[in-house]
Amino acid sequence: MNSHSRMPCAPLRPTSLALSIFAVIYCTSGHAESYFNPAFLSDDAGSVADLARYAQGNRQPAGVYQVDIWRNGELATTRDIRFDEADPSSASAPPAKSGGLVPCLDSALLKLLGLNFKAFPELAKYKDGQCIPLEQEILGASAELDFSKLRLDISLPQASMLGTARGYIPPEQWDEGISAALFNYNLSGSQGDRDSSQYLNLQSGLNLGPWRLRSNGSLSRNEYDGKSSGGWQNISTYAQRSVIPLKSELVVGDGNTNSDVFDSIGFRGARLWSNDQMYPDSMRGYAPTVRGIARSNAKVTVAQNGYVIYQTYVTPGEFNIEDMYATSSSGDLEVTVEETDGSKTKYSIPYSSVPLLQREGRLKYDLTVGNFRSGSSGQQAPTFVQGTLIAGMQGGYTLYGGTQMSTDYKALSFGAGKNLGDWGAISLDLTSAWSHLPDSTDKTGQSLRFLYAKTLNDYGTTFQLLGYRYSTEGFYTLSDTAWKSMSRYDYSESDPSELVSYHDLNHNKKGRFQGSISQTLNDYGALYASGSEQTYWGESQSDVWYQFGYTNHWRGISYSLAWSWSQSVGYNEADRAITFNVSIPFSAFGGSSSSSRSGLLDNAYATLSTVRNSNGNNAVQAGVAGTLLETRNLNYGISQGNSDYGGHSGSANLDWRGAYGNLGLAYSYDEQQSRYSWQAAGGAVVHENGVTFGQPLGDTNVLVKAPGASNVQVENQTGVKTDWRGYTVLPYATAFRANRVALDTNSMDDHTDIINNVSNVVPTQGALVRASFDAHVGVRAIVTLTRGNKALPFGSSVQEAGSGVSGIVGDEGQVYLAGLPLQGELQIRWGDGDSEQCVAKYSLPDDSLKEAVTIAAATCE
Description:
By secondary structure, the protein is mainly beta. The strands form 11 sheets. It has a 24-stranded antiparallel β-barrel. The protein is globular, with a radius of gyration of 34 Å. Belongs to the fimbrial export usher family. Residues 783-845 form the PapC-like C-terminal domain.
């Protein structure tokens, strides 16, 4: 080692690569302008390759690399970027972790990142594709590469950025996805001693460029004492696409209007509306949660706009349904809880948006033209037009209004909202309507609506939605005028005493209250209250649903107390119930920490549920539940109970989330009957590379493509892993947002390697986007390379011609290569001259794929 420093290092003769690297680090640390003498590695200079490229430490070759680009601490995009070698003598030399590379940032990329070019007119001198020296042209800007993570951090001063909201991704990065056919199924059923039911929901679709063709239907069959009912329902069939320049969505076919101004109704026609998902998160709405209390192992059915959209089976006690995908963005949810004794509890969950405030300058519109559509045979299909407009004004005000027009109905609405700062937000609107009813009478009326929302952070109180609507006696809706008769009562075909649905225009809606409030108590848990009440003109009864609850946890033990009250017009008695639930993990009795829980008991917990209804009947149920398997994708539960009205009862259930779908099995019994129930759900995608099966698809999905990498799990996704070809579907992606897709490298076998296991995609609404991964599947081998009975020089670069697998020669001509094919050619280079390179052909035995690491040798010619 010859050095310009005053501390020379004594020559060494290393016998291993580790010792050589140590010598380099030791002799060069803290000293500049160092020269590496190959004599440190061997007295024979010919046995060492030209190491000039390593003289400056961690130097990487220039070229194109795919990197994650972070802008001001936020993940912006993943792109292929050209990197050039940096001048090590430059005052602005990059840090060591960059590998001696600097990025080539052109105007197209900087515009994509939100740079305001109008503020920097001198940037106009750079042509398209030409590298812009960011730090020189923009004061305070920087670009730094972390080569080990393939992460490029770009810092841009706030003053140089366009005025976009935090988290917003520009349309240039949105991906319309690939062309594919999509299929979804959800099958559930039960078999009792006297009755049985089956429900099948089928969703199919076709993606062609920006267009999404969708069809949704359900088939149901119910039998009771030899009488059957049910049939096929076409829930919706439509074509949809995003209109990016307008930040809108277009639907042609079946759909539902929103409930910003008027009540949501179904239609068959065309709708064009502003899509909130194209705006930042702060401008987006909320989704409903269905809560309730079951007295036994009950069937819960949820309907919206006359169509059954969800069906499941729950155990006794309080239940929450948070994973439901509604068929429209609005429309009240009609919930039916059917107990094992045949009794039913019905209530309505209001589903509408929060106060209609918009940011200053934003204009939100919605236009629908078509025929009225519902799931009831008792209604007509009049042609109607609906238009609404919401405008954000100065001073925190929002003005909104709209109109509905058909042959027998005309309505005009106008309202305003205001941001009250610390006092929350409110909106108030008035709707006037002119109606021609089925009995040929004409009515005129008004409806006044008030909405309020507020979060009191200092007190932990959240008014998620408080609202009240008062309607005069002559006020009717468009849906009311579509009925063929003034009143109608429909009873169940299998049970004539059961009232399924009804309407009575002689007693139209009067007042309606709805609300949802939650209160955190810090270490003492949380309280919540939600409910609604609908009154009618000329009717003493009302539709009522209220629920109050308290939840808390202590040392891993969670418990809750809830009380509910529901009553519907046509039912003489109200249904009231109170329940207490407690869950105790077995790990609470041991000393294991949550980070090391892997045993059977560490993933199991005991449960206790008690219910008391308005008739004074009590029910108690205790059991054990938990998760099994390495990936915790198998849930189980066993319970035993007793009730005053049903006697002894018990249940057992298994729910499995697999790579090709979900499966659930359950058995329950009491002194009156026993019941089996099951549920199966899954999805499939047909694309240019074949057919891929997976878990139930969402509206927007990601196709994971890693050819050859079979049975590799997707991070943070229970049960989702690649099939035998290396493909899988990641459901429920977020539209117009960056979705991180990562493969779990710990789940790969010994013969699979992935260059970059992370991909970021930004899908549009309903798209199927592809996340591709470069997988090398082959042999992991240590190959000894020789030429003329002599080991190849230390530091020589090696690359397999077909697969591109590469490595660097170490001591004694050995090189480690991962992903090698069984046969191929190794191209070796240890200098720039033609005489300083050669090719070695090799052939490995077939059983090499069964070994962790194969030892082999090859001769270079």
